[in-house]
Specification:
The complex is a heterodimer of chains A (110) and B (118).
Chain A: E1 9-12, E2 18-23, E3 35-40, E4 47-50, E5 64-69, E6 72-77, E7 86-93, E8 99-101, E9 105-109
Parallel strand pairs in A: 1-9
Antiparallel strand pairs in A: 2-6, 3-4, 3-7, 5-6, 7-8, 7-9
Chain B: E1 3-7, E2 11-12, E3 18-25, E4 34-40, E5 47-53, E6 58-60, E7 68-73, E8 78-83, E9 92-99, E10 105-108, E11 112-116
Parallel strand pairs in B: 2-11
Antiparallel strand pairs in B: 1-3, 3-8, 4-5, 4-9, 5-6, 7-8, 9-10, 9-11
The chains are: A mainly beta (110), B mainly beta (118).
Chain lengths: 110, 118
């Protein structure tokens, strides 16, 4: 299992939108609609932000949205706020009760 | 409210076995879901280690499978991880989590730092 590919960094100004990509293969992202996104602030446990490609858990703002095309999933954060500055990780079901994470993207709010 | 809490030694010697336990409250493990371990080396990304279904069915990351054992104790409402023959590369924050459909980690423990050093 190779880690899913994410850009190391992304940035945007408050109020702007930013999109983070997550590229896998037909064995993970492309093969299942079980892509999740996590937000992690320094020293904290990750927090589930998106699941099953585009669903939001209760309490997650609508500013966070997810999508997928082929073997690439994307997380879009609209109306950037200072508290959105964090590391973001994607993950995908990879078959046979396996899961693989992305390399992580550090989002900076300028 | 589902809560998970990791416990175990914070320091393990090279070549020894790392043992961690995750105590679950607010939900009975025997009621369902997968329960998993995920780790994060300092300054690096997340890595899935292993998961166990409430019935005892297990799945392991192929890169760690030869050294890992995950088990569940429904009577104590907890599950455990053993990682053998550890090296400095196994130094990480270890998280336990409740995993739902597609193995998404819905609930996480706070994490525990395990350092491998003599």
């Amino acid at each position: 299992q190779s880690a899913l590919t994410q850009p190391p960094s992304a940035s945007g100004s408050p109020g702007q939108s930013v999109t983070i990509s997550c590229t896998g293969t037909s064995s993970d992202v492309g093969g299942y609609n079980f892509v999740s996104w996590y937000q992690q602030h320094p020293g904290k446990a990750p927090k589930l932000m998106i699941y099953e490609v585009s669903k939001r858990p209760s309490g997650i703002p609508e500013r966070f949205s997810g999508s997928k095309s082929g073997s690439t999933a994307s997380l879009t954060v609209s109306g950037l706020q200072a508290e959105d500055e964090a590391d973001y990780y994607c993950s995908s079901y990879a078959g046979s009760n396996n899961v693989v994470f992305g390399e992580g993207t550090k989002l900076t709010v300028l | 409210q589902v809560q998970l809490q990791e416990s175990g030694p914070g320091l393990v010697k090279p070549s020894e076995t790392l043992s961690l336990t995750c105590a679950v409250s607010g939900f009975s493990i025997s009621s369902g879901y997968y329960w998993g371990w995920i780790r994060q080396p300092p300054g690096k990304g997340l890595e899935w280690i292993a998961s166990i279904y409430h019935t005892g069915i297990t799945s392991y990351n192929s890169s760690l499978k030869s050294r890992v054992t995950i088990s569940v104790d429904t009577s104590k409402n907890q599950f455990s991880l053993k990682l053998g023959s550890v090296t400095a590369a196994d130094t990480a924050v270890y998280f336990c989590a409740r995993q739902e459909v597609g193995l998404r980690a819905q609930y996480w423990g706070q994490g525990t730092l395990v350092t491998v050093s003599s």
